[in-house]
Request: fold
Amino acid sequence: MLGPVILAASRSDKMRRFVSAAPGTKQVVDRFIAGETVDQVIPIVKDAAAKGLEVTLDVVGEDITTVEQSHAARDAYLQLIGRLEELGLGARAEMSVKLSMFGQALEGGHELALANVRPVVEAAAAIGTTVTLDAEDHTTLDSMFAIHEELRKDFPQTGCVIQAYLFRTEDDARRLAAAGSRVRIVKGAYKEPASVAYQDKAEIDKAFVRIIKILMAGEGYPMIGSHDPRLIAITQELARQAGRKLDEYEFQMLYGIRSEEHVRLAAEGHRMRVYTAYGTDWYGYFMRRLAEKPANLLFFARSILTKG
Reply:
């Protein structure tokens, strides 16, 4: 029951100020956010590569209000790609982008977001990597999928994300599970109404499994975004049944959560990618991580009480 409350708080300026000022916040934020700058995140990419892991990098800060901010977001990703190229890390790191950060919610936002994300996708391809378009709340998805389809005309390796808790997602999965596609499946981390999304955890888990089956039976490349040991085991079995080799799908987990499992799966021969967020505008991302798992909220509460 706490999850929806926390997600609502993620949109509150008053809560943003409170959480940012809380004495224990930095300790918890540092668990989920890899740093504030490119220079701070690059050593984490190198460390992941040394452990046999791959990463997807997210420059946080989707709550923009101006065209100038959308251009700044584009430039932040281009700077990141430039540094990855300098260090020869392109093969280990892809990018995850939220189109809201590229101006999707502004006037003329669909065209603006496409214009901003295209040079990022081009630059990523030039260094041998790619971009995945993150899913946001359900009102943005038709635009996201249309941009994804447009980008794939020139850059077919461009990925996208689908969310198990939405009723529409099984149909989206069938459409997307085509040859050459890259699709990340996650449970979903936005506050969605009962008219469009499952509200019960058990129902979401069942939908997640149904969607994995669709993706594994398709011709694309499934990316399984989950920390749930049961869903990971089910994924391995469904991949085996579908005749998929270990390099024909991958697991993805968040930076700072179940780090030992990241290494274990990689050691078993699985492709394991760590979703690594960095940047100064961390509040929305941080609150969604608290909402996903009660233990994260308890950790945060203890940190505030300890530091207070």
